[in-house]
Amino acid sequence: MNSQDFLNLFAVAQAWASEAGGHGAAHHVPSISEVIFPALNFLIYAFIIVKYALPAVRSFLKSRREEVIATMTQASAKKAAAQALVDDYKTKLTGVDREVLTLQATLRDEGERDKAKLISDANAMAAKIKADAMVLADQEVKMARQQIREEMALQAEASARALLQRNLSVDDQNRLADEFIQSIGQTR
Predict the structure, then answer these.
(1) Distance (Å, rounded) from C-alpha 122 to C-alpha 73?
(2) Which residue among 19, 35, 71, 114 is buried most deeply as judged by most CB within 10 Å?
(3) DSSP label of 57
(4) pLDDT in tens, 164-175
(5) Non-local CB neighbours of 6 within 8 Å, separated by 6+ positions
(6) Nearest partner of 37 among 45, 29, 26, judged by Cα
(7) Whole-model pTM?
Protein backbone atom coordinates (compact mmCIF):
# COMPACT_ATOMS: atom_id res chain seq x y z
CA MET A 1 0.00 0.00 0.00
CA ASN A 2 1.25 3.43 -0.77
CA SER A 3 0.64 6.66 1.12
CA GLN A 4 -2.28 7.69 -1.12
CA ASP A 5 -4.13 4.48 -0.10
CA PHE A 6 -3.58 5.32 3.56
CA LEU A 7 -4.96 8.81 3.14
CA ASN A 8 -8.05 7.44 1.37
CA LEU A 9 -8.47 4.87 4.13
CA PHE A 10 -8.08 7.63 6.75
CA ALA A 11 -10.69 9.82 5.04
CA VAL A 12 -13.15 6.92 4.82
CA ALA A 13 -12.58 6.06 8.47
CA GLN A 14 -13.12 9.67 9.49
CA ALA A 15 -16.32 9.94 7.45
CA TRP A 16 -17.61 6.72 8.96
CA ALA A 17 -16.80 7.90 12.47
CA SER A 18 -18.52 11.25 11.93
CA GLU A 19 -21.58 9.56 10.46
CA ALA A 20 -21.85 7.16 13.37
CA GLY A 21 -21.82 10.02 15.84
CA GLY A 22 -24.52 11.98 13.96
CA HIS A 23 -27.36 9.74 15.02
CA GLY A 24 -27.58 11.10 18.56
CA ALA A 25 -29.65 14.09 19.68
CA ALA A 26 -26.65 16.23 20.64
CA HIS A 27 -23.90 16.53 18.19
CA HIS A 28 -20.47 16.64 19.77
CA VAL A 29 -17.61 17.93 17.70
CA PRO A 30 -14.42 16.21 18.62
CA SER A 31 -11.31 18.20 19.35
CA ILE A 32 -8.31 18.04 17.12
CA SER A 33 -6.36 15.97 19.62
CA GLU A 34 -9.21 13.43 19.72
CA VAL A 35 -8.93 13.02 15.98
CA ILE A 36 -5.17 13.38 15.34
CA PHE A 37 -3.86 11.05 18.06
CA PRO A 38 -6.05 8.11 17.07
CA ALA A 39 -5.29 8.80 13.40
CA LEU A 40 -1.54 8.92 14.12
CA ASN A 41 -1.86 5.76 16.18
CA PHE A 42 -3.70 4.09 13.29
CA LEU A 43 -1.09 5.28 10.79
CA ILE A 44 1.74 3.92 12.94
CA TYR A 45 0.01 0.53 13.19
CA ALA A 46 -0.70 0.57 9.47
CA PHE A 47 2.97 1.47 8.71
CA ILE A 48 4.25 -1.32 10.98
CA ILE A 49 1.88 -3.81 9.36
CA VAL A 50 2.81 -2.69 5.82
CA LYS A 51 6.56 -2.44 6.51
CA TYR A 52 7.11 -5.60 8.60
CA ALA A 53 4.07 -7.86 8.75
CA LEU A 54 2.96 -7.64 5.10
CA PRO A 55 6.35 -8.71 3.63
CA ALA A 56 6.51 -11.59 6.10
CA VAL A 57 2.95 -12.61 5.24
CA ARG A 58 3.75 -12.27 1.51
CA SER A 59 6.92 -14.30 1.97
CA PHE A 60 5.03 -16.96 3.94
CA LEU A 61 2.23 -17.10 1.39
CA LYS A 62 4.74 -17.24 -1.49
CA SER A 63 6.70 -20.08 0.16
CA ARG A 64 3.45 -21.82 1.06
CA ARG A 65 2.26 -21.46 -2.54
CA GLU A 66 5.54 -22.95 -3.77
CA GLU A 67 5.21 -25.80 -1.27
CA VAL A 68 1.64 -26.46 -2.39
CA ILE A 69 2.72 -26.39 -6.05
CA ALA A 70 5.64 -28.73 -5.30
CA THR A 71 3.37 -31.05 -3.31
CA MET A 72 0.80 -31.01 -6.11
CA THR A 73 3.54 -31.75 -8.65
CA GLN A 74 4.82 -34.63 -6.52
CA ALA A 75 1.29 -35.90 -5.99
CA SER A 76 0.62 -35.67 -9.72
CA ALA A 77 3.83 -37.61 -10.44
CA LYS A 78 2.95 -40.20 -7.80
CA LYS A 79 -0.57 -40.45 -9.22
CA ALA A 80 0.85 -40.99 -12.71
CA ALA A 81 3.25 -43.65 -11.36
CA ALA A 82 0.41 -45.34 -9.47
CA GLN A 83 -1.80 -45.24 -12.56
CA ALA A 84 1.02 -46.77 -14.62
CA LEU A 85 1.39 -49.46 -11.95
CA VAL A 86 -2.36 -50.10 -11.98
CA ASP A 87 -2.35 -50.31 -15.78
CA ASP A 88 0.63 -52.68 -15.63
CA TYR A 89 -1.17 -54.92 -13.12
CA LYS A 90 -4.35 -54.83 -15.21
CA THR A 91 -2.30 -55.94 -18.21
CA LYS A 92 -0.65 -58.66 -16.13
CA LEU A 93 -4.04 -59.79 -14.80
CA THR A 94 -5.37 -59.99 -18.34
CA GLY A 95 -2.27 -61.99 -19.25
CA VAL A 96 -2.77 -64.21 -16.20
CA ASP A 97 -6.38 -64.90 -17.23
CA ARG A 98 -5.23 -65.88 -20.71
CA GLU A 99 -2.42 -67.98 -19.25
CA VAL A 100 -4.86 -69.74 -16.90
CA LEU A 101 -7.12 -70.54 -19.85
CA THR A 102 -4.12 -71.78 -21.86
CA LEU A 103 -2.94 -73.92 -18.94
CA GLN A 104 -6.43 -75.34 -18.48
CA ALA A 105 -6.62 -76.23 -22.17
CA THR A 106 -3.14 -77.75 -22.07
CA LEU A 107 -3.94 -79.77 -18.96
CA ARG A 108 -7.24 -80.90 -20.48
CA ASP A 109 -5.43 -82.03 -23.65
CA GLU A 110 -2.77 -83.83 -21.63
CA GLY A 111 -5.49 -85.47 -19.55
CA GLU A 112 -7.28 -86.64 -22.70
CA ARG A 113 -4.01 -88.01 -24.11
CA ASP A 114 -3.24 -89.75 -20.81
CA LYS A 115 -6.78 -91.12 -20.69
CA ALA A 116 -6.50 -92.45 -24.26
CA LYS A 117 -3.09 -93.96 -23.48
CA LEU A 118 -4.38 -95.57 -20.27
CA ILE A 119 -7.38 -96.98 -22.12
CA SER A 120 -5.12 -98.26 -24.89
CA ASP A 121 -2.73 -99.79 -22.35
CA ALA A 122 -5.65 -101.33 -20.45
CA ASN A 123 -7.09 -102.80 -23.66
CA ALA A 124 -3.67 -104.19 -24.62
CA MET A 125 -3.22 -105.63 -21.13
CA ALA A 126 -6.74 -107.13 -21.23
CA ALA A 127 -5.97 -108.71 -24.62
CA LYS A 128 -2.69 -110.09 -23.25
CA ILE A 129 -4.41 -111.42 -20.14
CA LYS A 130 -7.10 -112.96 -22.33
CA ALA A 131 -4.45 -114.55 -24.60
CA ASP A 132 -2.53 -115.79 -21.56
CA ALA A 133 -5.75 -117.17 -20.11
CA MET A 134 -6.49 -118.93 -23.39
CA VAL A 135 -2.98 -120.44 -23.48
CA LEU A 136 -3.30 -121.45 -19.83
CA ALA A 137 -6.76 -122.92 -20.47
CA ASP A 138 -5.41 -124.86 -23.47
CA GLN A 139 -2.57 -126.18 -21.33
CA GLU A 140 -5.02 -127.12 -18.58
CA VAL A 141 -7.22 -128.90 -21.15
CA LYS A 142 -4.18 -130.76 -22.52
CA MET A 143 -3.08 -131.70 -19.01
CA ALA A 144 -6.63 -132.83 -18.17
CA ARG A 145 -6.79 -134.92 -21.36
CA GLN A 146 -3.38 -136.39 -20.59
CA GLN A 147 -4.49 -137.19 -17.05
CA ILE A 148 -7.72 -138.73 -18.33
CA ARG A 149 -5.73 -140.82 -20.84
CA GLU A 150 -3.38 -141.97 -18.09
CA GLU A 151 -6.31 -142.85 -15.84
CA MET A 152 -7.99 -144.64 -18.73
CA ALA A 153 -4.76 -146.52 -19.50
CA LEU A 154 -4.39 -147.49 -15.85
CA GLN A 155 -7.99 -148.65 -15.72
CA ALA A 156 -7.56 -150.52 -19.00
CA GLU A 157 -4.41 -152.16 -17.66
CA ALA A 158 -6.13 -153.05 -14.41
CA SER A 159 -9.11 -154.43 -16.35
CA ALA A 160 -6.79 -156.36 -18.69
CA ARG A 161 -4.87 -157.84 -15.74
CA ALA A 162 -8.04 -158.82 -14.05
CA LEU A 163 -9.29 -160.38 -17.28
CA LEU A 164 -5.99 -162.12 -17.88
CA GLN A 165 -5.83 -163.48 -14.35
CA ARG A 166 -9.31 -164.84 -14.65
CA ASN A 167 -8.92 -166.25 -18.14
CA LEU A 168 -5.20 -167.07 -18.40
CA SER A 169 -3.91 -170.39 -17.24
CA VAL A 170 -0.38 -171.34 -16.13
CA ASP A 171 0.37 -172.92 -19.55
CA ASP A 172 -0.75 -169.72 -21.30
CA GLN A 173 1.48 -167.67 -19.02
CA ASN A 174 4.53 -169.83 -19.80
CA ARG A 175 3.87 -169.70 -23.52
CA LEU A 176 3.51 -165.85 -23.44
CA ALA A 177 6.74 -165.52 -21.46
CA ASP A 178 8.60 -167.68 -24.02
CA GLU A 179 7.21 -165.64 -26.91
CA PHE A 180 8.22 -162.42 -25.18
CA ILE A 181 11.79 -163.68 -24.63
CA GLN A 182 12.08 -164.73 -28.26
CA SER A 183 10.80 -161.37 -29.51
CA ILE A 184 13.40 -159.59 -27.38
CA GLY A 185 16.12 -161.82 -28.74
CA GLN A 186 15.12 -161.07 -32.32
CA THR A 187 15.11 -157.32 -31.89
CA ARG A 188 18.75 -157.44 -30.71
Answers:
(1) 71
(2) 35
(3) H
(4) 777 777 787 788
(5) 43, 46
(6) 45
(7) 0.36
